[in-house]
Amino acid sequence: MVKRGSMKILFLEYKFRDFTDSELLLPKADGVIAALERLNRSRWSQIKRCFSWKGISFTSLPGGDVCPASDVAFDFLITKIKSACKYKPDIIWFDHLRFEGHWEDPSKENLGFHKECQYCKGRDRSQLILALANRALGAVTSQTKTGYFAVPFKMEDCSWIADVLGQDHKKLGEVFDSVSPMLYHRMIGKPVSYISEYSQYLFKLGIKAEIIPIVQLKDMPDYLEDKLTVNEIQKEVREAVKLPSAGVAFFSWDQAIEKNKIVPVSSFLRSI
Ligand SMILES: [Zn+2]
Description:
nine-stranded parallel beta sheet, alpha/beta, binds zinc ion
């Protein structure tokens, strides 16, 4: 068992290629979250060889015009859950558990939000997402824990998180074991201190889920020149592990390799 606040988790996208064992072992992380959509038996064998705590993430909903309140969306989610559980992970992570909409740059005028349709017309979207989660969680094998990735804004600042995207963290934080707010602070134009501020915010909502902020390792989206320094990544980590956080996750280990940061970031992670 790792002590509270100290868990270190690598998100594996398999964006370019496979990892070598030494690339995975270098930071002495406690576990991984691997992307289901690129996972296979050989990659899973490597993960089992290198880590005791193993998570799998998947895109929960098809997106586009498919309404999360439709049967198509529910069937899509159940298929993902069943495929993930076949690997017998310790935890599965629901990504994109929400109505469609581009949250990454809230200054943009057209956020591409899902328009009302026959399934969601006049209904409370956060209740619909909660109901979907509750129904779908019944398909998770009993020994597997669950988590979700949270759009990282405060509901009092951005009411559209719950009203339009349907992510009410107070409600979802009661039904999942873990919540991982996507605190890519530079991408959303926040200071690094926002990382711990946001963990505190979630904690004060009184949720039962443990909080594991996920932080960025390079500037995103990909078309941006990467100006995120290792020094700033160290600040991110210090912010992310402040209590009441249970640890820190990194998006993504592929990106650390892409930007030649794996050695200095690993060296820092081994030291904390
Ligand atoms: Zn709809």
